[in-house]
Amino acid sequence: MVEWERYKWPIISIIVIIGVLMLMIAIGFTLGILSEDPDGLERALIDIRSEEWLEGLGSAWEPILGWIDNDYIAGIIGILLTIVLIIAVFSLISYISKKKKSKNE
Amino acid sequence: MHIPDGLLDPVTTVVLWIVAVLMLIIAFWRLNILFQDEESERLIPYIGVLAATIFAFQFVNYPVPGGTSGHLVGGTLVGVILGPWAAVIVLFMVLIVQSLFGDGGITALGANTFNMGVIGGIGGFYIVKAILWIFNKTEMKKEVKVPIATAIGSYIAIVLAAFICGIEIGIGGLIPMDIAIAAMVFWHILIGIGEAIISGLIVWFVYKAKPELIITENMLGVS
Q1: Nearest CA of chain A to the CA of B140: how many Å?
Q2: Model's pTM, two decimal places?
Q3: What ipTM was estimated for this complex?
Q4: Which of B71, B94, B186 is opposite residue A39, by nearest beta carbon?
Q5: In this complex, which of A40, A42, A78 lies closest to B97 when CB atoms are compared?
Q6: Which domains does chain B have, with CATH numbers?
Q7: Where are the domains of chain A?
Q8: How far apart are the C-alpha atoms of A60 and A64, rounded to whole Å?
Q9: pLDDT tens across A31-78, in order?
Q10: Does B85 touch chain A if contact means CB atoms closer than 8 Å?
């Protein structure tokens, strides 16, 4: 059985994070809290070369989720993917270390 | 600071991948020791939440004067809360997901992990530790000095990461190194202010809401 009580706060936190992110996207650009300007590295490269040059940098791979152009959907999928990946990796670390510990005992 | 594909030369790309993978292996091994404690398993859902927070904050850009924008990198922040080695793994995972959306290249994932996870996470953690060593000589409460040290540490770490990122780009030869370094450091001196404020506020909030989540107090030498 899944112990829901144990995961109650993390689940609430995830829902709150998704809600806050949606709200930030929705009203952030309108109020000017957020910006679509290039970030530091992009700005530096545009200043030195040009925007066309930056856009023309070749990549051998097409980003798998690059087709999602809706910020809300991309945000939700990204958050959920991050959580699944992180929990899987740290659960694996925990499993291996406990197995190692019980073997030593 | 997400390096796209095609900007770094093959040698720099491979070398930084090797360094990043080595750091990830060490991180995996170091965390194995931490997770031998029965209670540590409780932390896993919160680590997931923290990673989601980093992803969300990296997703949205705040405006910076001069026609640029910044977003949280979060390496030092994760380093202070969960430790430097956890920061490398968390940042690597966040960067993998972002590269799937086209934010940061897939071949440049090693370089991005090195800049944000190793320099930002491990470097930032030890900068914070050094600042706390000075703060420990004062009467400041830990709920005040740790967030302030985190803010200063994140600022220094982000500018340092930008400096190193400039070197990596310069080695590729597409852009002269001196120009790449100057441009990267200049913009990140401005962008780093946001990183410092957000990181300091999150650590302050964690101290208020769930201080037991900060598992690095002994490692940081907080007194």
Answers
A1: 30
A2: 0.90
A3: 0.85
A4: B71
A5: A78
A6: 10-220 (1.10.1760.20)
A7: 1-57, 72-105
A8: 12
A9: 777 888 888 888 888 988 888 888 888 777 788 888 888 888 998 899
A10: no
